[in-house]
Amino acid sequence: MSMEPTMVKVRVPAKVNLGLAVGPVVSGYHQIATVFQAVGLYDELVAELAEPGVCELLGDLPDGVTVGEDNLAIRAARLLMARFEPTSGVRLRLRKRIPVAGGMAGGSADAAAALLACSVLWDLDTDPDDLLMYGAQLGSDVPFALMGGAALGTDRGNRLAPALSRGHYHWVLVFGAEGGLSTPEVYRRFDELNPTPASPSVPTDLLEALTSGDPHAVAEQLFNDLQPAAISLQPKLGETLEAGRAAGALAGIVSGSGPTTAFLAASESAALDVARQLKAEGHQVVRVQAPVAGAKIIG
Ligand SMILES: C[C@](O)(CO)[C@H](O)COP(=O)(O)OP(=O)(O)OC[C@H]1O[C@@H](n2ccc(N)nc2=O)[C@H](O)[C@@H]1O
Ligand SMILES: Nc1ncnc2c1ncn2[C@@H]1O[C@H](COP(=O)(O)OP(=O)(O)OP(=O)(O)O)[C@@H](O)[C@H]1O
Predict the structure, then answer these.
(1) What are the binding positions for ATP in this chain (predicted)?
(2) Quick check: is 236 catalytic?
(3) Has residue 103 got a pLDDT over 90?
């Protein structure tokens, strides 16, 4: 009797970049230095065994994502299928909560979830490092979605080292009200605004703040080199950042390439107050804790 499961369910988190330094382009990608933190906002993916050769995605997906071959979850499953030629196929079901084109690595999260789910479903001979390597082939943010927690990312963002982190952080996320932002477009605007960027690095002050466990210290060190580019494409983001600070957040930043904005609060009750006020002003708001684990099997 086979002990292999016929169905695997994976939960995978979104990310924020606590610091994002962007440098020059090398081979089509910007060199970056970033501190990733996985936050408690999750997509869920179920992978079920299917007839040989089948690789398909079902699910009621939000605007901007299709179930077709370009979906990152499908691309991840296809990559493993081509590499390992499993005897059965796979049917994926995706439940998205991470905003699409929101700067929180939602598509990357789904690719990470599919890699993990399919490797278990097909009982593949892969270790965590193999999955990180396949992830990097699918997108710069995919390895971190597998790893979770807090990490330093360099090169294209795909080369990871775990970062020491103490404490729990309370964030209020505000989703973009004017649709998503295209990551390549934000990087292009960055190039227009910064014709000769310096080689990127993460300040040790940020890493030290993270080990202190003090949200006030971390709040002082938050930065995002893509923020001016994102604001230049969606000027209202500047007003949202102001609103979050006025509502009592310690600091606010654009998350990654935006347009999600992330506000760090001093405590859970402070986050509740910030969220309540921003909601009353008409913003679409979610409260999350961080750091959380990376892609994980939950059934
Ligand atoms: C903004 C961040 O989310 C910060 O973590 C990432 O840098 C973006 O990572 P991602 O969405 O996984 O990006 P990928 O799917 O690898 O690349 C999409 C496109 O974004 C641009 N891109 C991405 C990553 C990078 N280091 N430099 C880039 O210039 C490139 O035009 C690339 O073709
Ligand atoms: N499973 C998926 N979920 C969301 N978008 C996907 C997925 N697969 C492919 N895409 C495509 O990728 C584009 C970027 O989506 P995504 O949600 O990953 O953006 P993002 O969160 O801004 O990315 P990042 O933070 O990594 O830059 C979408 O516009 C969509 O067309």
Answers:
(1) 99-109
(2) no
(3) yes
Is there a single domain that holds both residue 39 and residue 148?
yes
Q: How far apart are CA 237 and CA 12, in angstroms?
A: 27
Residue with tokens 């890699």: 115
Q: Is 130 a catalytic residue?
A: no
Residue 216 lies in a domain: yes
Sign of CA dihedral 221, 224, 146, 31: negative
* Domain count across the chain: 2
pTM of the model: 0.96
Q: Quick one: the chain helix, strand, coil %, rounded to 5?
A: 35, 30, 35
d(CA 192, CA 54): 44
Give yes or no for residue 255 CB within 6 A of ligand 1: no
> Is the CB–ligand 1 distance for residue 139 below 6 Å?
yes
* 34 pLDDT above the threshold of 80: yes
Distance 275 CA to ligand 1 centre (A): 29
Give the residue numbers spanning the domain of 221.
169-290
